[in-house]
Amino acid sequence: MSQELKVSRIRQGTVIDHIRPGMALTVLRILGIGAAVSHSVVVAMNVPSGALAHKDIVKVENQVLDEETLKKIAIIAPHATVNIIEDFEITAKHHISLPRALRGIIKCPNRNCISNQDHERVSSFFICEREEPIEFRCHYCEALVQAEQAELYA
Ligand SMILES: Nc1ncnc2c1ncn2[C@@H]1O[C@H](COP(=O)(O)OP(=O)(O)OP(=O)(O)O)[C@@H](O)[C@H]1O
Ligand SMILES: [Mg+2]
Ligand SMILES: [Zn+2]
Q1: 85 CB less than 6 Å from ligand 1?
Q2: Which of 67, 77, 82, 114 shows its CA 20 to 30 Å from the CA of 97?
Q3: Domain count, the chain
Q4: Average pLDDT of 17-33?
């Protein structure tokens, strides 16, 4: 008998595959998915992926991810694959990668940073500094932020 878990397929939407185990809940938060969701969402956590590895998967019906959302996902799940589903079939597959720089995505934790002074109209700008774990550094005040702990703009 097949060991595979069967869940109903989605007609239209997005499958985010190969998410590092444990990060699916953060992906849901980035997608704005909570208890009041009105479309189908399937979340698989720590399922087998290949011979040794495990992964999380998030499948959302009727949702297309914009560039900004993809960048947010990329900094917490840089090895994820984003599959676009139309009429039950995969019509596009994107291998996302870790951005080298991010404008207006990460909120600088330094309250005195110029990017936090509204009247200065400076949007935050972070440069990737390290990949394991993923860390970004503020271009203005040099604050160092771990991607998994970063506060993101809504
Ligand atoms: N209609 C659908 N509804 C929900 N999930 C789907 C649908 N079609 C495909 N998927 C899921 O999309 C993911 C990628 O499917 P695909 O068939 O491309 O697998 P794959 O060949 O293993 O791809 P990869 O090389 O990216 O791992 C899988 O998790 C699969 O279950
Ligand atoms: Mg696969
Ligand atoms: Zn700063």
Answers
A1: yes
A2: 114
A3: 2
A4: 94
